Amino acid sequence: MGALKIYASDSAVLRYDTPNANYHSSDLLDGYDRQDEMILTFAPTEMQITKIRYHKITAITWYIYGQNKKSSGTSGLHINPLKSTVDLAAVTYATKPDADRTTSWAVFAEASEAAGYKNGTKKENAETLRKLFNFGAYVTADYGIVAQTAKGTYKPYIEIDYEDETATPYIYPTEEGTRASEKDQTLGWTWAWGAGENYGDPQISGFAVLWRTKGTSTTHTITAGAGQKHVTVEAGTFPVGKIEWAVRATTDQGATSTSKWSEFAVENPKVTYMSPGSGAYTPKHVAALFTWDVQQQDWYSPASITPASATLQWRVTGDATVHSITVSGSKTSYTVPANTFAAESVDWRVTATTAGGLTATSEWITLTTTEAKPTARTVSPVGIVIDATIVNRFEWEHIIETGTQQSKADLQKSDDGTTWYTLATVSGSDLYYDVPADTFSSGTKYWRVRTYNTDATPSDWSGRAEFIAINSPSTPAIAVKSTGGRPNITWQSTEQEAYQLTLSDGYATGTVFGTAKEWRAPRYLADGTYTVRVRVQNQYGLWSEWGGATLPVTHAEGEAIDLFVTVGSEALLRWATNGSYDFYIVERDGVAIAKTTDPTYTDKTSIGTVTYRVRGCYADSYDYGLSDSRTVTVRPDTNVICDLEGGGEWLEMRLSETQMRANNCNRTSGIAVIHLAGLAYPVEERSETRDLTMTVSVAWPHKQADQARALELLVGKLVCVKDRYGSMAIGTLSSLECNADAAMLRYAFTIQHTNREEEINLDS
Q1: CA–CA distance, 304 with 271 (Å, rounded to integer)
Q2: Residue 300: partners with Cβ closer than 8 Å, 6 or more residues away
């Protein structure tokens, strides 16, 4: 293990109290009397770079000469790489560069310690080292720390730990499994350098593939060039059996690395996929197709190979006499003529010869020639409701031990489950029948089925299956009762258990359960002509056709309303009118959010740009008057929170323990990723669900402890929290993280935004 010490070559101090001044020549960072920060740069020599080039960096440790001048406690220096170069002769606190916050060091000093070099946490990343060399580092100091810069007697430095040997790649063989003996074989691999591990990666000068027969020590070598990722090995190189192999890489620095040993098997061809399989039924009196396949035993390419010839053999089970049928050429099937087999059980096998002269023989497979009696079972409809006004598919199962197809089926129907009538006869193997529309009247019905095997032997009748046949309800007739701002309609219908209503402006009720046949608009509609549609659902879940009507909407305009909106952390609405309105409806962005008799309203739960309007209403009619719309932007100038249940005032949260305050707002949508059978990649399932959490940190000095206690009193209450960036969350403040020191009271909390139906019911 090697180590390299590199001192900072230059520096500049940044002073908070003189933000526009440059302190390039300063030799001291003062965190006791001032809020100093500093930038350090490095200028490693070529000799130093050579020491670590192509080596894995295992640690980077900072050493800074300084002292904690507080009377007690621990203070530290915090170091981050810069993201870009900086002009040390010109940089000021006001123009300080951006640092990489993903990597940081901490160098701590106790108040009791004497001045000297202090070291801290270690980082192991060559990419971070490049940033230090290319751009430099940004150093901030806790209160009490005084440290020397690169201009001082005791310069800051870093100590770089690195591995003695130059880096080598990680190598991964990519093929294992079974391989064919008579086929050229490809052995492949991938390789990679450790991400960010090395200070530069050397070049690979070449690869070598090592292989041996498993259980032996003799190793064979196949060389490959630097750019190769595979080698092709001629057929016959590997013997039949288990083979172990690995890949060795050599770099231009002379270092080598070898992958782990992998394993594959070399096998001769086999006879596979024989049909009919063991125990299968083969009819005596019907020609039977026998098929097979000859395959290379190769894991990544288990493809069929073309045989030169084959022999199909069969025997009566238990008989020593074997009958052979020669299959010429490359055929992998043979149709045995009808009545070849007379016994109830026969065995068969195949011997195939490859073009390379290899022979593969299958095991004996036993077949039955006895046809079984089938069993019929109803599948659908069973225990369900069907729409008898359309074509309905009746389905069943033909169950038979031999696995043969149905030759015929009979279907019967019944109104009482006792007296049966012919429904249909199906010739052939179809396991369904499409019953024409209007075959069944409404009510409880029954059906059954029987099927036939290939010997024309019928099954017993299946058990009776029960279902309910229904028709759709009639189309409702709509009557308009009133045409004011909130119009009213009624309708006539039969069998209604629920209804749906739509307006031509996009409004829809969804499914409303019950027998009510009257509807009043839940909101005020603008004057105009609408189309209203209604359909009803009966007890069977079927819907009628849509009934429609023209709905004219008119109203008498009331007296003018003057609206005024004042904004800050909330919106305060005030209005005035000469009209005699009974109540007012406050609308935000077209949604009714409040109903009041007062000429004022405070909207605590708005954020961003919104548009308000006030509607003056009457108790004895649905006429109204409207104010002009007022578009405003609601945004506090700092973080605020208030008690929505108690109607409290906004609590301002202006301070944080960090200089660059940041609120965390996390928004997620309801997206699930699932894998489906038959698809290589997953699919997305989207839902309407959303999640929003808002995390806020705040601090108060002890002299403002009353404000801190006000925040504590909000735990367990429904609150609204907003920030100056336009984010808002409403939910219960379930927990509050608190900590304190001699200087500040610090808090952090997270609000999970919960659903609130802001649109009010105008009739409540």
Answers
A1: 10
A2: 175, 177
> Based on the number of CB atoms within 10 Å of its own CB, is 743 exposed (0-12), middle (13-18) or buried (19 or more)?
exposed
Cis previous bond, 276, omega within 30: yes
Name the domain boundary from 553, 582, 602.
553
52/160 Cα distance (integer angstroms): 9
> In terms of domains, do 646 and 730 share one?
yes
User: Taking 90 as the threshold, does the pLDDT of residue 606 lie above it?
Assistant: yes
The DSSP secondary structure of 592-648, one letter per residue, reads EEEEESSSEEEE-S--EEEEEEEEEE-SSSS-EEEBPPEEEEE--SSEEEEETTTTP
- Token pair belonging to 612: 């308000």
Residue identified by tokens 């108040």 is 111
Given a cut of 90, whether residue 626 has pLDDT beyond it is yes
Number of domains into which the chain is organized: 7
- Is residue 628 in some structural domain? yes
In the chain, what percentage of residues exceed pLDDT 70? Answer: 98
Residue 62, exposed/middle/buried by CB under 10 A (0-12, 13-18, 19+)?
buried
Quote the CA–CA distance of 763 and 487 in Å, as a whole number. 14
What's the rounded Cα separation, in Å, for the pair 348 and 328?
Answer: 18
Which tokens is 387 given? 């729409």
Per-residue pLDDT tens over the stretch 357-376: 888 899 999 998 888 899 99
The CATH number given to whatever domain includes residue 233 is 2.60.40.10
629 lies in the same domain as 660 = no
Alpha-carbon distance 152 to 316, whole Å? Answer: 103
| 181 located within any domain | yes
d(CA 329, CA 308): 5
